[in-house]
Amino acid sequence: MQTFDTSLPVVVLRPDHHGSLCLIRTLGRIGVPVYGVGSQLRSAGMVSRYCRDKFIFPDGASSAQAQVDFLKEVVRKIGSRPLLTCTNDVSSTFIAENSAVLRESFLFPNISSDLVQTLTDKKLMYFLAKKLDIPTAETSFPQSRQDVLNFLEGDAVSFPIMLKGIDGAALERRGKPKMVIVRTPQELLQQYDWIEDPANPNLMLQEYIPGGDNSVWMFNGYFNANSDCLFGIAGQKLRQHPVYTGATSLGICLRNEVVEETTKRLMKSVGYRGVLDIGYRYDERDGKYKVLDINPRVGATFRLFLDQNGMDAVRAMYLDLTGQAVSVSPPRVGRKWVVENGDIISFHDYHRDGKLTFFQWIRSFKGVQEAAWFASDDLAPFLLMLRGLASRFLLWLRAKLSLRARAGPAA
């Protein structure tokens, strides 16, 4: 079994998601001391047995400067210069924008804030793909409701249409969905009026590429300082949460030379460094794989993508940044990975739409080799997830019973 120097500590910023939990586990299991820094003490990564210590931002530490100062204090308590990483867009943007000062205390891939913005901003990413001749879905960027009306008058309008946020995190902060599928002009206008902030236009109209969830492909990998791909594996979504438009709830590891080579060419062209999570959709109308989103960070699905020796993108990053060789082997083709709570909720919605029976759902778990939450050596996060899932179910049940009670007298 290969052994590594695991003495360099790692700090995971805001480990509130199952992706952060998987990150903490994959490094903790090989002996890396991993620390969590965030705002919630009882969150996915913080409760893991592999999280050596937890640091909570103090009340009022909302400014970037206050958070940078707190992170520097964390380094002083740890006692050595750690590697800094994350699994969400807000944190990756924060690291990039404050990289000059953070680099004095932390080790992390050298990615410019301009490149991070270009890749995460879907408008900038669209024009980048066009410039580099990378297939992508045709998209329009309205600046007002009148622009949407003008769009609807065009001869080439075809429904359904994807109404998406250019900056998804900004929509989440306003409590709005990052994307919706609209099927009529009336629905488009209704959703646009509800989601858009006219003072800060942040929506785009993207062609809907037909196909099921399995038309969505992913690539996770790690690129070194020369933008060479030291580790990279493709995979396919089998189910999503939320359904049709969300993150992977069940995925499978598969070879796809087109996706792999397109990604490597794109990242080499822009000089990308670090862990990457990128999504494509196969368009059977023209036989092209079209890039939909680029995440310049650790993706929540990264543990789907393993090789025969257990290497993943996070371990590859750790080894490369600590000056160790990254030895890769063939991918585990056919390996499945599931997000338990997301897939349970998605099953309900797919079943409601007549897309999935109970027995089809059960049979689909054949080949699952790892789950996002459950791990026999680390049960606390799984129990935390069950508690959250039970709370969500009780809220749903209460709302359903309330609707029935109000409908009863009227009936």
Give the number of helices: 14
Strand content: 15-25%
Unreliable runs: none
CATH superfamily of the largest domain, please? ATP-grasp fold, B domain
Strand count: 15
- Structural class computed from helices and strand pairing: alpha/beta
Give the strand line-up of the largest sheet: 13-12-9-10-11-14-15
The ordered H/E elements are EHEEHEHHHHEHEHEHEEEEHEEHEHHEH
Domain tally: 3
The biggest beta sheet is recorded as:
7 strands, mixed
Radius of gyration equals 22 Å
Q: Indicate the CATH architecture of the largest domain.
A: 2-Layer Sandwich
And the CATH topology of the largest domain? D-amino Acid Aminotransferase, Chain A, domain 1
Write down the overall geometry. globular
Terminal residue distance: 69 Å
Calculate the mean pLDDT score and round it: 94
| CATH class division of the largest domain | Alpha Beta
Helix content: 25-40%
Explained architecture:
The protein folds into three domains: 10-108, 3-Layer(aba) Sandwich (Rossmann fold), CATH 3.40.50; 138-207, Dna Ligase, domain 1, CATH 3.30.1490; 213-371, 2-Layer Sandwich (D-amino Acid Aminotransferase, Chain A, domain 1). The protein contains 14 helices and 15 strands. The strands form three sheets. Strands 13-12-9-10-11-14-15 form a seven-stranded mixed sheet. Strands 3-2-1-4 form a four-stranded parallel sheet, sandwiched between helices. It is α/β, with parallel strands linked by helices and 411 residues long. 38% of the residues lie in helices and 21% in strands. The N and C termini lie far apart (69 Å). The chain has helices spanning 18-28, 64-78, 89-97, 99-102, 113-120, 122-131, 145-152, 168-173, 185-195, 257-270, 313-321, 340-352, 358-363, 380-410, and strands at 10-13, 34-38, 51-56, 83-85, 139-140, 161-165, 179-182, 203-207, 216-223, 229-241, 247-253, 274-283, 288-295, 336-338, 368-371.
